Amino acid sequence: MNDDQSTPRRPGRRGFLKAGAAAGLASGAGVARAALTRTPADDAQRQTEPFYGAHQAGIVTPQQSHTYMAAFDVKTDNRDELVSLLRAWTIAAARMTRGDTAAALNTPDDKSAPDSADVLGLGASALTVTFGFGPGLFKTGDGKDRFGLASKRPGALVDLPRFNGDQLIPEKTGGDLMIQACANDAQVAFHAVRQLARMGTLANVTTIRWGQAGFLSGPKGQTPRNLMGFKDGTNNPATAEPPLMNQFVWADGADAPWMKGGTYTVVRRIRITLEHWDTMELGFQEQVFGRHKYSGAPIGKKNEFDAVDLDAADKDGNPTIAENSHVRLSNHQSNSGMQILRRSYSYNDGTTFYIERWPPWRQETEYDAGLIFIAHQSDPRTGFIPINAKLAKFDMMNQFTTHVGSAIFAVPPGAKEGSYIGAQLFEA
């Protein structure tokens, strides 16, 4: 045993008395200091993001470590009932982003249990709640204009085309309304959506169509890595530069004034065959992405944010970055300068088992895991759609990925205090 691990001597009775007296003298000051001192963990829990503002939070907000997204079908055909729910959602969301419960507790109406109370003591954890409107809110699949909004549907809120290789699951696709909660605590994010979903159910206005939890990890201020081990979002337009956000993210409201300052959000659930990917050699993985795995640098470069050189070639004249690599096909240089703001999360929904029936028979495991691809842009017709159409046809990554969920939403601008999300649409 090392000297510093030896068993300490027990103090005698006098030692205990001295220690007790010292503790008693210091206890008052210690309690006071404890009340005034906050640890870094406490500060993270208490961090808040403003709910009200020109833009909705959760779009250019520094990305939190957890998300819970849900899409809803609207059951009612009554416009007033829908607006009433949006008002209630706005109030509840604003409360929760401050670190409060969705509704006040210990009131005469508390018998109805207005909040699940599972986040008491957790703090806001930088919670943001973002709302979006799907195409079905403006006109249903059978052409019904339930709320008199068909004429106000923006041209950019298109029905996404079916892309090459899509294997969409209806239960993970679409939705009339969207709520995304992001926080640095998984329970805080889930709690927010759970309370809002409950309100919609009790009002008999909405039902959940799909929900999905996600996570990301990485040092603060650095580009997070996806489950394939590569950095995800390196080439995003800088959120701190308003001209870039105005060009690529915020809608100008040209054909739909109520959307000015909002954005269009595409959500894709992409399953990744990690068990297959993990058998690939490092060099091949880097060719698929067009980047070095550990540094994040473009192939042939040293640093993550070095410019991508699509003209670079090796000594034999072959492109340094493969023609069908993900970076080449998605880079703005290959897409008429267009950029989208990626704010994606990984997901892991467990494992499934199957029997490999080709001799020798054996049991294999598959992960139900991958990426919740989330992209904000000023117009998906010039952003996500042409970029993804190219990727769907030629990207080497397609041999490891399957798109199983898809949705698009018009995310309106932020609400003013005393108003509600979407007021510009319903009151114009």
UniProtKB/TrEMBL annotation:
SUPFAM superfamilies named in the record: Dimeric alpha+beta barrel
Essential cofactor(s): heme b
The record places domain Dyp-type peroxidase C-terminal at 223-415
Q: What PANTHER family does this protein map onto?
A: DEFERROCHELATASE, DEFERROCHELATASE/PEROXIDASE
Q: Where in the cell is it found?
A: Cell envelope
Q: Which organism is it from?
A: Caballeronia jiangsuensis
Q: How is the cofactor bound?
A: Binds 1 heme b (iron(II)-protoporphyrin IX) group non-covalently per subunit.
The residue range of the signal peptide is: 1-34
**UniProt keyword annotation of Metal-binding present:** yes
- What does it do? Involved in the recovery of exogenous heme iron. Extracts iron from heme while preserving the protoporphyrin ring intact.
- Which InterPro entries does the UniProt record give? Dimeric_a/b-barrel, Dyp_perox_C, Dyp_perox_N, Dyp_peroxidase, EfeB/EfeN, TAT_signal
Q: Which reaction does it catalyse?
A: heme b + 2 H(+) = protoporphyrin IX + Fe(2+)
Query: Does this UniProt record's set of keywords contain ATP-binding?
Result: no
Q: Top enzyme class of this protein?
A: oxidoreductase
Name the EC number(s): 1.11.1.-
| Short name of any one Pfam family annotated for the protein | Dyp_perox_N
Residues covered by the Dyp-type peroxidase N-terminal domain? 56-215
Q: Which UniProt keywords apply?
A: Heme, Iron, Lyase, Metal-binding, Oxidoreductase, Peroxidase, Signal
Q: What is this protein called?
A: Deferrochelatase
The record's family statement is:
Belongs to the DyP-type peroxidase family. EfeB subfamily.
